[in-house]
Design brief:
The structure holds two protein chains of two kinds. In chain A, strand 2 and strand 3 form a beta hairpin. Chain A is globular, with a radius of gyration of 12 Å. Chain A has one domain. Chain A contains one helix and five strands, in the order βββββα. Chain A is an alpha+beta fold. Chain B starts with a helix and ends with a strand. By secondary structure, chain B is mostly beta strands. Chain B is extended. Chain B is built from two helices and ten strands. The chains are: A alpha+beta, B mainly beta. At the A-B interface, strand 4 and helix 1 of A face strand 2, strand 4 and strand 9 of B.
Chain lengths: 79, 140
């Protein structure tokens, strides 16, 4: 999986999904996500190294946008 | 006489093939038709075979369940409603906004077609209970 973090903000998780990048960060009510750019300084992560609650969220996003759609908008995924 | 008969048959065939006969249009009277359990499936490059179940309950609650190859599953609670001709699905499963607005149709084969504003489509088949077991109908 294309999961990354940066040494500067090691709790933030970046996920490359198609042409889109999503960044998850901890908010007051749990994980929040926003569209992002892939940081230049990054290291790859294993899925198992991500907190359990975020694993579920990433799995849902991945399957909802990538797996069960018949077609997507030229690889640009929304959501 | 034969010619008139053939033309009549052709006319009846054309009328029966009209769009209004192929789909159930989303109207308030038809909203209840979307109630129930729907499934769709796909092949994910990271998770393998995935089956997704969407349970739409008449209370307005929903549950999305992911069945992953190997036997694991994840459930995501949420809610749903019909807003004019759109199906509005809410909950953590539906991404950063927590909401997905899609147009919907049920075709003449009973397949639920969902389409979002980007043009992405999903085909969902109704899951039917037979005795104590389930079977899938109209695999998309």
């Amino acid at each position: 999986m294309n999961l990354y973090r940066t040494p500067q903000d090691p709790e933030d998780i970046y996920y490359k999904l198609g042409e889109s990048i999503l960044r998850w960060y901890r908010g007051s009510v749990g994980w929040l996500a926003e569209p992002s750019e892939l940081p230049a300084s990054r290291e790859k992560l294993d899925f198992k190294d991500i907190p359990q609650d975020l694993q579920e969220e990433i799995m849902a996003v991945s399957i909802r946008l990538r797996t069960i759609n018949v077609s997507s908008n030229n690889g640009h995924l929304s959501g | 006489m034969t010619r008139i008969y053939i033309i009549s048959l052709f006319y009846v065939f054309l009328v029966s093939c009209g769009d209004e006969r192929l789909y159930i249009e989303p109207t308030p009277e038809n909203d209840s038709l979307i109630l129930g359990t729907w499934t769709t499936e796909g092949e994910d490059i990271d998770y393998g075979s995935v089956l997704v179940e969407m349970r739409l309950m008449d209370s307005g609650r929903l549950t999305m369940i992911l069945f992953i190859e190997g036997g694991s599953q994840r459930s995501f609670p949420g809610s749903w409603l019909i807003d004019e001709d759109e199906l509005v699905l809410s909950g953590r499963y539906f991404g950063t906004e927590g909401e997905s607005r899609v147009s919907w149709q049920i075709n003449d084969e009973g397949v639920l077609l969902l389409r979002d504003e980007s043009g992405s489509e999903q085909n969902w088949s109704r899951k039917k209970a037979i005795g104590s077991t389930f079977m899938f109908e109209n695999n998309a």
